[in-house]
């Protein structure tokens, strides 16, 4: 930038008299007495270099228009300084260069007094050539056409780049002013709220007096109180944007507005307050420090947000007619069942609208809940969900699908201040809530996530979004991935992360595991890694990975995110063998920074077993076929009412109720763009290799997952304990309890026989268990080793 400023300054300070002084001085002479003498006498304040540069560019190049590429160099410097993509700077440079040549040639065609300085040698040469070739008029037409076409094609891109830059600069400048006006606005809101409450109190007092006077006359539940909202349908700390009239097609109103009279339907109905939801402040993610040095001193560049597709300008208008219609049908149906509603407020989310209804005091909440199916029929809509009551509110919620669903794009949820400034350890964007608020969770706090839903409901897209969020937020020093993809097609894009983010397994070439037996081995490697990490923390005298990394930053341990995209496939082929390490990791790995994300399309109890569920307190349910499936995932119904395409219920580990969130959409092309970008960078020198698991230990699996070192089956010890515990040695018991196939169970039984734990097979008679206590068995097993 400084060089560009020098260049522009030098050109602007061009003095024609300097040329005669410089002509006698050789180029390389900068230290002789003559050079000093010339430097003292030249008019250009930028010294000998400035004078030479200006003379050269103005005389021999394009004259003063040479300043234009200089200006673009300034922009180039700015982009480098802000670590932004240099693509736009290059485009701008080319544009300015074209324009400089074009303008210089135009000046060359004129015979103004200063046209020599304005066109330079190149400009004049071009002008002479063109006027000879196509005549003066032709030359003008051609040059103007070239300028117009270049400006049209390059200008469009540039305008959007500049407006983005201007916006970000304005945002930066506007922050202090915004904070001040926010404070003033808050105070104003508080004042109006106080006045309103006072007014309401007065009214209530007045009403009570009235009731006391006419004690025989019953007051209908929906009398006067319909007219005024009791409290604004937003929390004080939420920022709500006023829907501008051109967007919503409604008059300019504050954060929320009421629909009554004609719009509300029959007069006397409760008024409806429409809340426009939370407005997330946008932020340019590329303004962060995008380039970092990894621990092994390799430069690493975070993916630019420009790799994600631009968010199309959606029609943001609220479909007021659809809302009014839904409200009318809702009230009609409730009226039939004699359920009086005092007040309704609505929040329009990306896929569904939440109608919050305050019921008359004598209405039982459970009555509304039982009407779910009737309401779905009355509104002729799928995906109606009743939340009775809304946690922390004196209201019942009914979620009704919007007439026109909106896609939430990944780019739109990443380029918000909340994500850019996030201090979470492993921030993952789950989507937008009903109030249009971007929801970001911390995987490190979850600490494991179970994702389940019917096929095609959006699980894989959700996993892609989670991985993308982590790639935008964390460097390869901070997080590593273990990817297990029995379906083989879901995670293959991430192969490109092999030199940066994917761990290596000892003895296995693949870094994305697709074979179930190898998956068991990989999970056992993770268990071993977990044990080693615990030892490490113990030695350092700290309780968790966060403290460890803070105390010993040069030895920082990366977080390990283990992703399994399809658990059912693994459970069917490897059964308990796979369940066991998953449970061990889920139970213990939180403190050492190992987190599991497990997805399944079979939400049945043989896949999501009780013990798996108990160890995955954070769960996401996508659309499922039945209420039973929903209960298997969430311990409650609701997921069967979801709409698919990323519509999810999120059960946080620290809250009793689920949240409805619309997941963002990221296409395979976008994922590929991110992974290719990362994959094209220099590979890290030190790859993260997981340790070899303890194969000879009881449950250890070898790489084939079947046999340990002594040729015994990896389930041998489990089988021994089982038969001794039950004092019953039958192949079917092993099959049932250890989920083994018949031939494998029979082979294990033979091995038990050779080890003297069970007797020989004797025709149809059952084998005898020869070890009668668990203690003796443990002794025997130790001796076998
Ligand atoms: N958040 C979303 N927004 C919009 N459309 C989505 C979203 N998520 C998924 N979809 C649509 O649903 C389709 C299926 O999604 P996805 O592949 O994630 O399903 P799945 O649950 O993983 O299915 P399977 O279990 O068969 O792999 C996507 O191709 C996309 O068209």
From TrEMBL:
It comes from the Bacteria. It is a multi-pass membrane protein. GO terms for cellular component: plasma membrane. One of its GO terms (molecular function) is ATP binding. Keywords: ATP-binding, Cell cycle, Cell division, Cell membrane, Chromosome partition, DNA-binding, Membrane, Nucleotide-binding, Transmembrane, Transmembrane helix. Residues 435-631 form the FtsK domain. The chain crosses the membrane at residues 56-78, 90-109, 129-153. Residues 194-210 have a biased composition (Basic and acidic residues). PANTHER family: DNA TRANSLOCASE FTSK, SPORULATION PROTEIN RELATED. Belongs to the FtsK/SpoIIIE/SftA family. Homohexamer. Forms a ring that surrounds DNA. This is Cell division protein FtsK. It comes from Chlorobium limicola.
């Amino acid at each position: 930038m400084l060089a560009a400023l020098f260049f522009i300054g030098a050109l602007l300070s061009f003095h024609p008299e300097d040329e005669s002084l410089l002509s006698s001085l050789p180029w390389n002479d900068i230290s002789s007495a003559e050079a000093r003498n010339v430097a003292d006498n030249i008019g250009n304040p930028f010294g000998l270099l400035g004078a030479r540069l200006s003379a050269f560019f103005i005389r021999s190049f394009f004259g003063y228009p040479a300043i234009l590429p200089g200006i673009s160099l300034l922009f180039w410097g700015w982009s480098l300084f802000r670590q932004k993509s240099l693509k736009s700077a290059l485009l701008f440079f080319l544009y300015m260069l074209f324009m400089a040549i074009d303008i210089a040639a135009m000046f060359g065609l004129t015979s103004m007094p200063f046209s020599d300085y304005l066109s330079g040698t190149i400009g004049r040469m071009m002008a002479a050539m063109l006027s000879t070739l196509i005549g003066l008029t032709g030359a003008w037409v051609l040059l103007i056409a070239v300028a117009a076409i270049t400006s049209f094609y390059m200008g469009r891109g540039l305008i959007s780049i500049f407006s983005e830059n201007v916006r970000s600069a304005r945002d930066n400048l506007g922050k202090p002013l915004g904070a001040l006006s926010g404070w003033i606005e808050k105070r104003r809101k508080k004042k109006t709220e106080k006045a309103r409450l006072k007014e309401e109190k007065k009214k209530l007092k007045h009403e009570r007096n009235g009731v006391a006077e006419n004690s025989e006359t019953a007051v209908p539940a929906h009398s006067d109180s319909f007219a005024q909202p009791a409290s604004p349908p937003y929390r004080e700390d939420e920022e709500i944007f006023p829907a501008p009239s051109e967007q919503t097609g409604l008059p300019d109103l504050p954060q929320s507005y009421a629909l009554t009279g004609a719009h509300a339907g029959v007069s006397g109905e409760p008024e409806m307050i429409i809340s426009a939801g939370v407005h997330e402040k946008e932020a340019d993610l590329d303004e962060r420090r995008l380039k970092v040095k990894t621990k092994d001193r390799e430069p690493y560049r975070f993916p630019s947000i420009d790799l994600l597709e631009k968010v199309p300008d959606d029609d943001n208008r609220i479909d007021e007619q659809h809302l009014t219609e839904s409200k009318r049908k809702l009230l009609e149906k409730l009226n039939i069942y004699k359920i009086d509603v005092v007040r309704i407020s609505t929040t329009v989310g990306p896929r569904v609208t939440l109608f919050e209804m305050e019921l008359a005091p004598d209405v039982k909440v459970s009555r509304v809940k039982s009407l779910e199916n009737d309401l779905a029929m009355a509104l002729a809509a799928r995906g109606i969900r009743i939340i009775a009551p809304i946690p922390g509110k004196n209201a019942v919620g009914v979620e009704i699908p919007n007439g026109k669903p909106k896609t939430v794009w990944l780019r739109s949820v990443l380029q918000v201040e909340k994500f850019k400034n996030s201090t979470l350890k492993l921030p993952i964007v789950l989507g937008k809530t009903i109030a249009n608020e971007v929801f970001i969770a911390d995987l490190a706090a979850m600490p494991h996530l179970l994702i389940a839903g019917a096929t095609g409901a959006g699980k894989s897209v959700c996993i892609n979004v989670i991985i993308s969020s982590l790639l935008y937020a964390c460097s390869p020093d901070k997080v590593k991935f273990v990817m297990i993809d029995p379906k083989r097609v879901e995670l293959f894009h991430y192969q490109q992360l092999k030199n940066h983010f994917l761990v290596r397994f000892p003895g296995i070439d693949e870094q994305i595991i697709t074979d179930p037996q190898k998956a068991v081995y990989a999970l056992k490697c993770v268990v071993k890694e977990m044990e080693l990490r615990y030892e490490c923390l113990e030695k350092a005298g700290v309780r968790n990975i966060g403290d460890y990394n803070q105390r010993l930053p040069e030895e920082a341990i990366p977080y390990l995110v283990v992703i399994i995209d399809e658990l059912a496939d693994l459970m069917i082929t490897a059964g308990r063998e796979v369940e066991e390490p998953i449970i061990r990791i889920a139970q213990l790995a939180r403190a050492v920074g190992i987190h599991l994300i497990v997805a399944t399309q079979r939400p049945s109890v043989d896949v999501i077993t009780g013990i798996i569920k108990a160890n995955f307190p954070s769960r996401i349910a996508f659309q499922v076929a039945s209420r039973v499936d929903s209960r298997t995932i969430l311990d409650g119904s609701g997921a069967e009412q979801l709409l698919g395409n990323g519509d999810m219920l999120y059960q946080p580990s620290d809250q009793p109720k689920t949240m409805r969130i619309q997941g963002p959409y990221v296409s395979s092309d976008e994922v590929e763009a991110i992974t290719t970008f990362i994959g094209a960078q220099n590979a890290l020198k030190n790859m993260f290799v997981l340790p070899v698991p303890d194969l000879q230990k009881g449950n250890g699996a070898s790489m084939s997952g079947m046999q340990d070192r002594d040729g015994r089956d990896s389930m041998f010890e489990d089988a021994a304990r089982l038969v001794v515990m039950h004092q019953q040695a039958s192949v079917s018991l092993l099959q049932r309890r250890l989920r083994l196939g018949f031939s494998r169970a029979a082979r294990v039984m033979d091995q038990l026989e050779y080890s003297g734990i069970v007797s020989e097979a004797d025709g149809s008679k059952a084998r005898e268990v020869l070890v009668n206590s668990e203690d003796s068995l443990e002794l025997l097993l130790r001796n076998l080793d």
